[in-house]
Amino acid sequence: AQSQGSIETPKKSKLSIMTGGNENLQQINGLEILYGRFFSQRDYLKGNNVIVVDQVSARNVFGYEDVVGQSVNIGSPLSPKKAKIIGVCKSTGLMLAGEGTEMPVFVYTPITFMQKLYPNILINYLSIIADSKDETEEAGNLSLRILENIHHNQDRNVYKAESVLKQLDQINSIFAIFTSFIAAVASIALLVGGIG
Q1: Contacts for 160 with CB less than 8 Å, ≥ 6 apart
Q2: For the chain, what percentages of helix, strand and coil (3-state, to nearest 5) are there?
Q3: How many CB atoms lie within 10 A of CB 153?
Q4: Predicted model pTM
Q5: Residue pair 54/19 in contact by the 8 Å Cβ criterion
């Protein structure tokens, strides 16, 4: 699940984007820990008030990267809870664009702690990892059946499984079309340039 909130230190208050999950969230998101550790199954099961932030967020909030052991107030500005930073992960993608800006702080935490912060939060997606590429579709379908059985809504098409591999194929197809279009425009420009 994801939610927006605030993260506060004695000197700063910033917008945060919090992602909650279990101890597998690190592997699913491909997070590389630079300092400290990622939260454990024990942290998840106990709902410990622990968080992991990315290195750019650490620098933007504290002025340095290794902020392991620091305490912050996090969650709704009206009812924040104290949390301890137990890890700093390498910044990637959108996180890198936030260096020295007003980008939000990216936070990873056990979903059980997130549920204490936001009791009415809905879990709107699940990420699973198949043992192999060949088992991706089967794993997705099995997950759907488990959810349907747990929530007694078989045959209602409430859930949808999407494969990251299929999404990558769609993105590659779009890039191929875009590349072909650019090549066609360049060819026309060369032809017009040669005539002129």
Answers
A1: 144
A2: 40, 25, 35
A3: 12
A4: 0.72
A5: no
What amino acid occupies position 101? T
* Tokens 């702080």 -> residue: 105
Closest of 147, 150, 173, 172 to residue 161, by C-alpha? 147
Structure tokens at 58: 């650490």
**Token digits for 84?**
């301890």
- Produce one character per residue of 162-180: b if its CB has 16 or more CB atoms within 10 Å, e if not: eeeeeeeeeeeeeeeeeee
Average pLDDT over residues 61-86: 93
Tally helices (H) and strands (E) across the chain.
Answer: 6, 7
Residue 167: its pLDDT value, please?
Answer: 63
Phi, psi (degrees; rounded to nearest 5) at 108:
-120, 135
Residue 134: count other Cβ atoms within 10 Å of its Cβ: 8
